[in-house]
């Protein structure tokens, strides 16, 4: 399967390019067309005064018909495209799956404790090892 890469970041809701150990991951999620009017791409609402996108908004809005969908509900219906090089076996592959983040426990080497993080988990096609695409934490 050949994945289509975005031509610009305006097409994406989510994009990341990361190095995990010896592996690499490039992942992106395309914006979807409005389910109500079918004319424009859904996106975060814009501030009336400045015209800038409200990054922390809890909903997605169609600019044409003003249809609104809750952030969690809308993001769970999307598909993430992943191009990766496995950190375990160095196999290069492509995966397309649901963009549902799940809570996953992992060991943090810096603190020496287990922590729970939100991540999209997928498996390497060759070695079947789990690879986690974690949500960036500040």
For the largest sheet, list the strands in their spatial order. 1-2-5-6
Count every helix, treating DSSP H or I runs of 4 or more residues as helices: 1
- How far from one another are the termini? 34 Å
Q: What would you call the structural class?
A: mainly beta
The number of E-state strands comes to 9
Beta-strand proportion? 35-45%
| Uncertain ranges | none
Describe the largest sheet: 4 strands, antiparallel
Would you spell out the secondary-structure blueprint of this structure?
Elements (H helix, E strand, L loop, with lengths): L11 E9 L2 E8 L28 E3 L6 E3 H6 L2 E7 L6 E7 L3 E7 L4 E11 L6 E5 L4
Antiparallel strand pairs: 1-2, 2-5, 3-4, 5-6, 7-8, 8-9
In short, what is this structure?
With 138 residues, the chain is mainly beta. Helix content is 4%, strand content 43%.
Description:
This protein is mainly beta and 138 residues long. Helix content is 4%, strand content 43%. It has one helix spanning 71-76, and strands at residues 12-20, 23-30, 59-61, 68-70, 79-85, 92-98, 102-108, 113-123, 130-134. The longest helix has 6 residues, at 71-76. It is globular, with a radius of gyration of 17 Å. The N and C termini lie far apart (34 Å).
